[in-house]
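Lab manual, section 2.4: Encoding a predicted structure.

Procedure: take the sequence of the chain (155 residues), apply the prediction step described in section 2.3, and record the output as C-alpha cells. A sample record is shown.
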Amino acid sequence: MNYGYIDKNHILEKAEKICDCIGHGLYGTAVEMIVETAVAETGLGQITDRTVGAGMGLTQFDELSFKDIKNRNMKLRPKILKELGVDLQLIEWDDLRYNDFLSLLFTRLFYRLKGDPIPKTIEERAKYWKLHYNTEDGKGTVEHYLEMNRKFGVI
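Recorded output:
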C-alpha cells in the first residue's frame, strides 16, 4: 500500500501547487512542512500504519480533524475549486486513502489554521509537528520525525 504515492518529484510538484493556492506560510516553508509530515507519518508511502483507528492516507489524517478542517476552510472552497479543481464540499475522509494530493491538501489546510507560523528549520518543524499534528498523546516523537526525514526525505 502506498497511499497513492508515485514518486518524490510528483509529491513535490503537488505540494508546490497546493501551497501556490493556499499559501507558503510566513517563512515560505509550507511545502517542506506538508512533505515532511507525509514522510514522518508513512515514510512517504513506504510504510503502512497498521494501528487500529489510525489516520487516513499519506499523511495519516484523523477523521475528526478531517471534518473540522473541512468545515473551517469552506471560505477557501471557491479558490480551491478554481485553482486546484477540488470541491471541498464533495471530499469524504475515505477519499484521502489513496489520493496523495488530497492528503497533502488537507494537511496544508490543517497547518494553515494554526496560530503559529510554520518554522524555518527542520528541527523546529519537527517540534511543530509534534505539538500540532501528532499531539502530546501521539506516539510520534521529534526524533522520529527527524529520523524518518533523514531516511525517506525528499527535501
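Check your result against the sample. The mean pLDDT is 92.
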